[in-house]
Amino acid sequence: MDTSPPPAAPGWPFKRYFWISVAFAAVLGALVLRVGFMPDDFIWLGVWDHVPPPAPLGNTPLDVYRTATGIPEHTLRLAQVGVFPWWVEPTVRVAFFRPLGSLFYGLDHLLYNRVAVAYQVHSVLWYVGIVVLAGVLLKRVLPTAVAGVAMFLFAIWGSHSAVLGWLSYRSVVMSLLFGVLGIYFHVKWREEKRTGSLVGALVSFALALLSGETMVILSPYVLAYEAFSGPGQAKDKLKGLIPFGVLMAGYFALYRALGYGAGGSDMYLDAVGTPVEWFKAMLTRVPAAIAGLTLNAPPDFIFDASMVPLFTVLGAVGLTLFALLVWGVWPRLEAAERRTVGWMLTGAFVSTWLANSAFAGSRTLIVPSLGMAVGLAVVLRHAWQGRARTFRAGAVLAGAALLALVHVVGAPYIWWQTTEAYAQADALMGRVQLRYQEALDETKLPEQRLVVLNAPNGIIGIYGSVRWWSTGMPLPKAWWVLSYSLNEQKVTRTGPNSLELSLPKGGHFLDSVEERIHRAARHPVAQGQEFDMKGLTVRIEEMDGQFPTRISYTFDVPLEDPSLKLVQWHNKKVVPFVPPAVGGPPSALNVR
């Protein structure tokens, strides 16, 4: 009996795949038009509007992504006025080299001021551009049908909505676009030996690096291409990497010399500066990312530490399923196709580790999804072509159908869900602004120091004052938020000008992801440690392991002094806080 696979049926021309992919990218991308500005965006808007800040900021109009300089004097001054929380690590640095990202974002502000939909249209155009260039690259390195399916999968990939909908992430989209173009030219140069293609590759890579660090995350694809598909012997492959290597070395030297990078935070980790902490974090972040890449499970959920074990299991299941499906179709692949799948999946896997130097989330998946789209397209195409009455072929087809259901049918829902969550976040911050307007006397505020005892969550704790400042509202002399804890808190008056916060029902202060943005767990506070905010002294009174359970706050005037404005969040409103009497029963804080 002849058991050879049936000849492949004629497929669609690539042009059809191309235009379907572009159309879907535009339609799904249009969902972000209902999203307004997100929390980070208000920092940039305030900088471009030249709103006087309460203390000198690291951000400048053409360097808006330098949020924390890492210089203790700068950090402490911002903490004293409440831009950073009182527990901030003085050396925390969140500074990203994105001059082109800043320039194009600033151009939007020049043209459209604060019309968010115009900014979003601009971002959608960049995204459609990525899809087009991804299709051009894939058509060069893959058979037509597989390239078309891969382009379509990449265009609709659900997690891309997390990057596209948040305007501050446009630098990611820009960097990826130029990076994909650079890979195309690099492949063309290596296979056709045309000097013009080498120039095109280096210019594209340089533009990608000027747009953002995403090009660094994309770089494993270049290395993997040479390892799997680069023409010639090993020495030829190494020579082929020299121009790219020189460019990257110059970039890293400039990056460090200008003071860019991240440190002191658990949100962003430095693989070079803190390799041990980085590797430990990857043991939880990478499995969650793999769960997102293979099963479309949103890795954002591991912001809740209790979800980490589940996503570790999902990552292992997704990786096993995907590996078995690739193994199942492997005999059907031609040698050239195998090499391309090899370098694309290798690039995807390594870039997953680099991408998760930022805290795991759907936004970290866009670079790895390029290679995963290729792997998934190969599985879907060959599983369908190889369907036959054998257990192996049937199992592969069933597994491929499951992944198709998750990645194709589920993609529009993820786009809608993500943009809906972003729209709700924008609306929430608008309500936060209104609640503060209701609670604060804007005529008295410039002579007061605002004390917010509790924030209903870390995002409001961090960005409530940012939006207030960005919109040009009168600023207090300081905007101190005492706690981001979501646990029920007890307030005890310990003196005329002092109070304590404790957690009567258990839990810890400074242990949430939002709190560790400004102070990594590897920089723990100590019992008895004090923080001087120039008018407010904070002292860690009790610890339970690594994190505080009781904290005291001592002001330079009595709590009833009119120079202090004490408020609390209660039942979704900002209401005055009346301090208990000295020696009297404590008050309860519960944001819910």
From TrEMBL:
The keyword ATP-binding does not apply. The keyword Membrane applies. This is Glycosyltransferase RgtA/B/C/D-like domain-containing protein. It comes from the Bacteria. It comes from Corallococcus caeni. The chain crosses the membrane at residues 17-37, 117-138, 145-163, 169-187, 199-221, 241-258, 278-295, 307-329, 341-359, 365-384, 396-416. Keywords: Membrane, Transmembrane, Transmembrane helix. The lineage of its organism: Bacteria, Pseudomonadati, Myxococcota, Myxococcia, Myxococcales. Signal peptide: none annotated.
